[in-house]
Amino acid sequence: MELDCHYDKSGAVEALDEVIQGGLAYVAAKEDAAIQHLSAVDLDRLIVKQNSTNNKMWHLMSTTPDGSPDCEVVFRVQGILAAVDLVANHKFTKCKPDRAAGLSQRVKLIGLDSPLFQNALRQTLLVHSAFERHFGRSVNSWNVGGETADGYISLSSNYFTRSTPSAAAERHEPADGVDPFGVLQHFEKIGLVHTKENVVKYFRKYMSKDGVAEIYGAFPGNFRVGDIVEARGSVTVVSAKNSTLKVHYHLHSVILHDARFSKIAEDLRAKVVRRAIVPSVLVRKGEFIDEDEDVGQTRKRLKELAVTDDDSVMTH
C-alpha cells in the first residue's frame, strides 16, 4: 500500500517533526553512550569491533566517558512507515533452506519532506565513515537511500540463526503476534533456530490524561503503512561476496507513536470502495394505476416512464 491522495502528507510531516524533536530531547537528557539518536551521533566515541564468534561481522561500538567497557550503540530513528513486514506467514514453509535463512522482519521509514528526517539520512553517511576509517576503504549500504523526499532508512532482523550447539541452547520464543501460525518451528529441523538475537519487540505509545507518555506492548500486525513510528537498532558491517563490505541496520524494536494519519486514509479509501460497488438502480418516476394492473399494461407504462441513474439509491 502506498501513501496515496487520501493520506495527509503535510499533516504527517508536521507530526513526525514533533516526534523527532521529542526523541532528540529524550536522548540528550539521558546522556547514555549506548543509546544515541541517529540525527545526533557522537562520532568521536564510535569504534568498530569484530564479532567474537563471526569473523565476517563487525559491530559499531561506543567508548564510555567513565572508562567502563565499550558498548554496542543502539540508534533511535523516527519516521513514517513506507513498508512493513513483521508477521511470519504460511508462504515461509515453501522456502528452500538457503533462502529461509534470510527471512526477516522489516520496516522501511521515510520522512517525505521532513528536514529533521533528512538530517538523519545525512548522519548515516557519517556513521558509515566510522567503518570506512576502520577498514580503510568504502562500504556499501543495503538499508539507506537518498537524502531528499525520496530518502529512506530500512531496518531488519532475520528470523533465524544457523543452529550451533550454543544457538540451539539459546532458542527463544518470538514476540507475541510474530508467529501466529507456528510456522517458524518448521525450520528447526533444517538447522535454523529463533534466538534472543532474532527477537524484535513491539510497543505503542499512549498519552495519559495527565499528559504523561506511557509505553505498552503491541502486536506487530497492528502496524500499518503511514504510521509514525520509532525504530531502534544497531549497526553492523558484514563481509559479502567478492569481499565487499555491507552496512546493515539491525532492527531491535518498533514503537508506534501516531496512527491517526494511516487510519484516516484507510477510512477514506474504504468509502471510495463502497461507493464503487453500490450498483446504479433505475428509479421509477411514475406509479401503477392500481394493484390489478395486468402485465401488458405495466410493460406499456414502463416504456413511457422517465428513469434516472441515481447512485444515492441503495437496494437491500
Describe the structure.
The chain has 316 residues and is α+β, with helices and mostly antiparallel strands. It has two domains: 9-268, no CATH class; 279-316, no CATH class. It is 25% helix and 29% strand. It has six helices and 17 strands. The strands form three sheets. Strands 1, 2, 3, 4, 5, 6, 7, 8, 9, 12, 13, 14 and 15 form a 13-stranded mixed beta sheet that branches. The protein is globular. The model is unreliable at 308-316 (pLDDT under 50).
Which features does this protein show?
316 residues; alpha+beta; 13-stranded mixed beta sheet; two-stranded antiparallel ribbon; 6 helices; 29% strand; globular; disordered C terminus
Helix and strand composition category: alpha+beta
Please give the number of β-strands.
17
Distance between the termini: 32 Å
Counting structural domains, the number is: 2
Compute the number of helices. Answer: 6
Report the average pLDDT across residues: 82
Low-confidence stretches: 308-316
Helix content: 25-40%
- Biggest sheet, open or closed, and with what strands and sense? 13 strands, mixed
Strand content: 25-35%
